[in-house]
Amino acid sequence: MLIKNVTIVTHEEILYNHWIHIQDNTIQSIGKTGDEPEDADVYDAKNQYALPGAIDIHIHGSHGVDAMDGNAAFFNEMAAQLPNMGTTSYLMTTMTESLDIIRHALASVKDYCYESGAEMLGVHVEGPFINEKHRGAQNADYIIKPDVTLMKEFMALTEDKIKIVTFAPEQDKELALAKYLHQNNIIPSVGHSDATYDTLKELEQLGDTHLTHYFNGMRGIHHREPGVAGFGLMGRPFVELICDGIHVSKDMVKFAYNFIGPERLMLITDAMPAQGLEDGTYPFGGQEVVLKNGEARLKSGSLAGSVVSIKESIKNMKEFTNCTWMDIVKMTSYNQSKRLNLNDRGEIAVGKLADIVIYNNEAELQDTIVRGSRVMPN
After folding, report:
1. I need a surface site. Which of 150, 281, 338, 355 has the fewest CB within 10 A?
2. Where does the Amidohydrolase-related domain lie (predicted)?
3. pTM of the model
């Protein structure tokens, strides 16, 4: 495939009047308009913006399927649906449930084999090692203390495909789990946590840190205790952010963008199985969630994941912050690829996978290309 008349966006620059040549699922060459190679399959991008496909590192489900179901339907549905929403890679994300259900969900991962569509890159284990005080929609009945032995079992079930573990470090005696995760190249992410700033500074001494869905499910900022939210500003963690305007208001999204910056922010959906579905009541994590007007809530009123898509998050981020397209690349793909040590994606560059999304001037998704094949959005 030859993509002509395209504006290429990288994390560093915008290249106007360019072309991208794709062969064998990868980007073979890039150049300026006028010296294009010949190709029978030509796609005229009409000078719209080409970005790397988004990598969603925190997504529980979509279009009626749930990561906790532990069956192949999850992977097949996610692969088919996510490119329509601008996502080309993702981490299957679990939640706090009974250990048997978590084990079943994790065990399904080892049999995964990529075929087409969005690729599942591994697992984000959210819970059960969290703090009940900030449980949000996580089921309090199944919250337990961090347990290295259990974590080893989880790793074996997935054949070492766990990439991120969300946990509450204040519950982690001597930071034993955090140390184990670092030793095994797994990202320890602070979430659903009441940790103090001092605890997080101690955690930071072990290596790079990470925060799960910033502002949500964490100790907030106080003038005598910066808390988890304060650590996001004052430390150097990578920071997940849900940009639906519901979990975090548009003004606080702008606050995070201004004071944390696109170099550390990562847009996530935290989407639950009702993403892409009509208003109604849906099961999620052993509980009932009511979806109404774009908000997914437990009957208690607590937010229960989101139904926002990456393409909507990008449009919101542009509107809320007036950020650049280069910033969008950082927050949706480049930062994620570096954080997960992915050398084959996250950039539009020669030798990278041809996972490309096309947006117009209004930040509306026009097309998705996964490994060189076009997937028109619904």
Report:
1. 281
2. 49-374
3. 0.96
